[in-house]
Amino acid sequence: MTLPEQGRSRDDVFGQMRERKAADAKWDQGKTFSLIYPTGRDDVDELLMDANALYLYENALNPIRFPSLQQMESEIVAAAGGLLNLPPTGGGTLSSGGSESILMSVLVNRDRAKAERGIEPGKGNIVYPTSAHAAFAKAAHYLELEARPVPIRTDDFTADVDAMADAIDDNTVLVMGSAYGYPHGVMDPIEDLSNLALERNIGFHTDTCVGGFVLPFLEQLGYDVPPYDFRLPGVTNMSSDVHKYGYTTKGVSVILHRQTEWIGNQYFLYSDWPSGIYGTPTVAGARPAAPIAAAWAITQYLGNEGYLELMRSLMATTDKIRAGIEAIEGLEIMGNPIGPLLTFTSTTDAIDTYAVCDLMDDKGWNLDRNTDPNGLHMMISPLHERVADEFLADLRWAVDNHGESRGVEARYN
After folding, report:
1. What's the CA gap between 123 and 110, in Å, rounded?
2. Hey, where are the domains in the chain?
3. Domain 23-41+303-401, what fold?
4. Which fold has domain 50-299?
C-alpha cells in the first residue's frame, strides 16, 4: 500500500478500520483471557478514555516542558512501591511494559556487577527458571549475557532451588523468580531464591509483572501469600505492570530498585551533538503521555478500596471457573495457582487439550496454549464474571466433542 494520492473521507477511513477490526479478538465481550484486562465497568472505561484524550499529544520525553507528567510518573512509582514495600532508600521509573522493565533490571544488575565485582559485559550470566518470562532471555540477548534457564519442578511447576543454586557461579549477575509466573500462575520460592543471591552478593529480581497489583490485595483479603517483595533483604529489584491488573491502558509498567542510585544505571546521557543534553531512563526517547495519564487517573480513582473490591469479586469468579474446570472429568489445574491465572491440562489420552482449544476458538474464545505438558492458559479479569457460565458450558462441550488437533502451535503473541 502506498500513501493515497488524495485524502479519504473520515467515514471511509473509519469504515475500513471497523471492517478490519471485526476480525480482532472480542475482548469487550469477555472472550479473551490475556493481552487485555477489562473491568467491565463503564465508569472505568470512561475515565481511561478521558485521561488518554487529555494527554493525547504530549511527549513524556521532556519533563521540563511537561512537569505534570513527571509528577504523575513519580506518584505511580510511589504507589507501586508502597504496595511492594519498597524501602525509603529505593526508587524506580516507569517503562512501556514488563519486557522493558525487565530489560532495565538486567541492565542495572549487569552494570552493578561490573562496578562492584569486575564482571565485564560479555562475561556475565543470568540464572532463571524456565517458567520465567521470555523477556529475561531477550534481555540477555540484547546485553551480551549468557542466559541460563533452569528446568522447573515437574510436580508443582515452581523453580527448583537446588538446581538454580548449581547454575549460579562467580559470573552470575542476576537471579530471578516469579511472583507469580505467567505460564502457570504459581509462586516461585522467592525467599529461598533471594537468599541464594544474597549469600553470594548477586542481584535478585522478583518478577511481579502479573502479580504486582494482585498479591498485595490478596494479602489484605487474608489469603496466604508467601513472602516475595522488598520485605525480603535479598530482593534488589522488582517489576510490576500497571497495564495488567492495575487496569490501565497499554503500556505502563514500573521498575523498582532497592537503592535509588541504581536508577542511574538505566540512564543514557549524551551531549556530543548540536542539540544539547539528551537523557532517557528507558529505551524509548519520545514517550506517549496518554498511558501515564491513564495509569495515574485509574490508580487515584480506584484507590486501595477500589482495588480490593475488584479483587474480591475477581477471586470469586476465579474460584467458580476453577471449580467448573475441575468438575470436568479428565481435566486438572496445573500446580497451585495463587491468583486469577489458571492453566489446565488433561489427565487422560482421550482428551487432547489443543483439539479442545480448536473448538473453543471456533466459538470465539481466546485461550492460550501451553507446552510441557500441553495445556490451556487463561488470565481471568473482572469482566469474565458475566461469561463464566457460558465459558464452562462451551468448555464441557468441547471436551466431549473434539476430534484431532489442527496443529495450532503454542505462542505468547
Report:
1. 10
2. 23-41+303-401, 50-299
3. Aspartate Aminotransferase, domain 1 (3.90.1150)
4. Aspartate Aminotransferase; domain 2 (3.40.640)
Q: Which three cell numbers stand for residue 186?
A: 504459581
Give mean pLDDT in consecutive 10-residue pieces for the chain, a chain of 413 residues. Answer: 92 96 92 94 97 96 93 98 98 97 98 95 95 98 97 97 98 98 97 98 98 98 98 98 97 97 95 93 94 98 98 98 98 97 96 97 95 96 97 98 93 76
The CA distance from 177 to 203, in Å, is 12
What 3-state DSSP class applies to 104? helix
What strands lie across the sheet with 253-257, from one edge to the other?
91-95, 253-257, 237-241, 203-207, 172-178, 125-129, 146-150
Could you tell me how far CA 236 lies from the centroid of its own chain?
18
- What's the pLDDT score for residue 181? 96
Structure confidence at residue 286 (pLDDT) = 92
Q: Which amino acid is at 372?
A: D
pLDDT for 413 = 63
Q: Count the Cβ atoms, other than its own, within 10 Å of residue 200.
A: 16
Contact 104, 139 (CB under 8 A): no
One-letter amino acid for residue 264 of the chain: G
Cell of 45: 472505561
Cβ contacts of residue 146 below 8 Å, gap of 6+? 124, 125, 126, 140, 171
Looking at this protein, which amino acid is placed at residue 402? H
Which amino acid, 192?
Answer: D
